[in-house]
Amino acid sequence: MSKIPFTVSARTARLIGRENIASSKGAIIELVKNCYDADSKICIVYFDNYFSILHEKISLNDYKFLLQNRISQELINRVYEKKHTEYILKSFIKDEDRFQIKSDLKKLAKLYIIDAGEGMTAEIIQKHWMTIGTDNKANNIFTKSGRVRSGAKGIGRFALDKLGDKCTMITKTNSNNGFIWTVDWRDFEGKVFNDIRCI
């Protein structure tokens, strides 16, 4: 019999993140460690979860924002009623509508982790960020400023999957080169790694 190579399901990436990171708090800590390893002197963790609750009233701009973010107009109108220039939460809402809108609104929450680190070049993104289990930090334990790197397994980026389906990373080096990397973790279901392309 000829030698047969392993085929790795892309779902493995999701399992790496979910099984190694116990909670969303742990996932955030992993990402903050990346800021530390990038020699950043600051790290800002900002939650944009305005719609994490059902507000008693929303403005016309809020209403338009929800529509632009694919919240069903019919659902919104079953939950809110228009009064003048505002939308007021109805006194009676069916349980299924309440559950559905809460579930839909939860998906609008965003988490921003901002640092002032050295940034990544296209080569670093390709050879290290996009390589699973890279030994870069294990072999190069000190940062340029002399910090001992906190990451070593090469799986910290998979903590992103614990926090949401979609992720965008914007990175910039001192040479004015900037890069945008995006991933939708739902693309990892039912495929092998070679089928996945992150922008």
Key descriptive features of the protein:
199 residues, 3-stranded antiparallel β-sheet, two-stranded antiparallel ribbon, alpha+beta
Protein architecture, described:
The protein is an alpha+beta fold and 199 residues long. It has 2 domains: 11-48 and 109-195, no CATH class; 51-106, no CATH class. The chain contains 8 helices and 7 strands; from the N terminus they run H-H-E-E-H-H-E-E-H-E-H-H-H-E-E. The protein has helices spanning 11-20, 24-37, 60-68, 73-79, 95-106, 122-129, 136-139, 160-163; strands at 43-48, 57-59, 80-83, 86-89, 110-115, 166-172, 178-184. Helix 4 (73-79) packs across helix 5 (95-106). The longest helix is centred in the N-terminal third of the chain and has 14 residues, at 24-37. The chain is elongated. The chain starts with 10 loop residues before the first helix and ends in a 15-residue tail after the last strand. The model has no long low-confidence stretch (mean pLDDT 84).
Strand order of the largest sheet: 2-4-3
Q: How many helices in DSSP terms?
A: 8
Largest sheet: 3 strands, antiparallel
State the end-to-end distance: 38 Å
Mean pLDDT across the residues is 84
Spans of at least 5 consecutive residues with low confidence: none
Number of domains: 2
Q: What structural category do the secondary elements indicate? A: alpha+beta
Question: What portion of residues is helical?
Answer: 25-40%
From the alpha carbons, calculate the radius of gyration and give it in angstroms. 21 Å
Tell me the number of strands. 7
Shape: elongated
Q: What fraction of the residues are assigned to beta strands by DSSP? A: 15-25%
SSE order in H/E notation? HHEEHHEEHEHHHEE
